[in-house]
Amino acid sequence: MSPSSNSLKSFSMAFLLQAVLAYPSPTPLLERQTTAVPDYVSTYAPVVWLYPGENYFPSDIGAQLVHTKPEINFTVIEGYENPLTLNNLDSLNAYGTTGTDVYLTSVDDITTNPAWLNGVKPDSTGKTDGATSVAIIVNDHGDGLVDAFYMYFYAFNWGGVLLDIQEVDLHVGDWEHNMVRFQNGTPTQVWFSQHGFGEAFTYDCLEKQGARPVTYSGNGSHANYAINGTHDHTIPNVNLPDAGILTDYTDQGTLWDPLLGAYFYSYDASAKTYSAYDSSYPTAWLEYLGTWGDEQYPNSDPRQHEILGISATAEFTSGPTGPEDKQLNRTEVCPVASGYVCDVRTELTS
C-alpha cells in the first residue's frame, strides 16, 4: 500500500472515531422499553373459545364505519366529516350533547341479516384474517401495578331468547373485554365482562392454555365466562340478579387468539389520552363518546317487539359505547357499579 493510502486510511479512521464519540449515546435499554408493549401483556393475553354454533364472529373495527352512518334521534347528522375513519371518528363528539347521543346506525335493515354483521370466523391459527377486532390498552398505575384491557369487537349482538318466547337484546355493535391486572409483571386477577358488568377471578384459579387464561364467549351475546356450560343472563337494561329466564351458552367451538388481530395502546389516566405502540395504529377513534350501533327502535317501528309492553323485553336495543366508557382507570379489578361489591373469586364454580 502506498504512503498516500496509509495517510488516507489514518485520516478516515480518526474522522470515524471522532464522529462516533460526538454522536449522542443511544437511549438506555430500560428507558427505551417504556415505548414497547410489555412482554407480559402478550404472554398472559387471554384466548377465547367461541361457541360451536356462533353466527356473529369478531369483526373489523374500522369496517363498522363503512356500514353505518351517524345519527342523533334517528336523523343523520348534517355536515359530518365523510367518510368516517378510525382517524377522525372523534370528530362526532362535537355533535349533540358532547357526542354521547350519537349512534353509528346501520345503513342496512338489520332484520335482513346483511353479511357484514357476521364478522370473520377465526382460521385454524386463531386469526381473524383481514380483520383487526381487538384493542389492547395498557394502563400503568405506577409502583408495578399495570392493567391490560383486551377489548373485543363484534359487529352484532344476539341476546338470546327470553322465556322461549322472543329474541331480545339484539343490537348492532358489541364491545366486550377481559382485563388482566399485573403486579411487577405477574398476573394476579382477571375481569370477565358480561352484559354491562361481569365477574373477577384470581389468575391462579383460571383454566389456561400454557400461561394464557381461557375465556368462554357466550353464544351471540359474547359475554365472557371463565367456564363453559350454561349461564344466567341478566334481562337486558335491568339491574336485577340473574333470574335464570334468559340463558347464555358457552363451549369449545372455534378458538380465537385476540393477539393476532389487535391494535396496542398505552393509556395515560391523568391526561385521559391514548398512545399507539405502533405509529401505524389509529388513535382518534378511541376518543369517540357515542355508541357503535343503532339507537333502540321505538315501539312505532314495525321491527320492534316487546312482551306485554315491558320495555326491558325489547327485541332490539341500543348499541354499546366503546373502550372510552369502560372505566380504564379502575381502583379494583372490577369497574365501579352501584350496589355491587368487587368479589374476586378464588375457584371456578358454576
Keyphrases for this structure?
350 residues, 8-stranded mixed β-sheet, disordered N terminus, globular, single chain, 9% helix
Summarize the structure.
The chain is mainly beta and 350 residues long. The protein has 4 helices and 20 strands. The longest helix has 20 residues, at 3-22.
Describe the structure.
- By secondary structure, this protein is mainly β.
- It is built from 4 helices and 20 strands.
- The chain has helices spanning 3-22, 29-32, 39-43, 63-66, and strands at residues 47-50, 68-72, 75-76, 103-106, 134-142, 145-157, 161-162, 166-167, 171-183, 186-194, 197-202, 208-209, 212-217, 224-225, 229-232, 247-250, 254-256, 262-268, 273-276, 344-345.
- The strands form 5 sheets. An 8-stranded mixed beta sheet has the order 19-18-5-6-9-10-11-20, with no helix packed on it. Strands 1, 12, 13, 14 and 17 form a 5-stranded mixed beta sheet that branches.
- A hairpin with a 2-residue loop joins strand 2 (68-72) and strand 3.
- It is globular.
- It comes from Alectoria fallacina.
- Keywords: Signal.
What is the topological layout?
Layout: H1 3-22, H2 29-32, H3 39-43, E1 47-50, H4 63-66, E2 68-72, E3 75-76, E4 103-106, E5 134-142, E6 145-157, E7 161-162, E8 166-167, E9 171-183, E10 186-194, E11 197-202, E12 208-209, E13 212-217, E14 224-225, E15 229-232, E16 247-250, E17 254-256, E18 262-268, E19 273-276, E20 344-345
Parallel strand pairs: 1-13, 5-18, 11-20
Antiparallel strand pairs: 1-17, 2-3, 2-4, 5-6, 6-9, 7-8, 9-10, 10-11, 12-13, 13-14, 15-16, 18-19
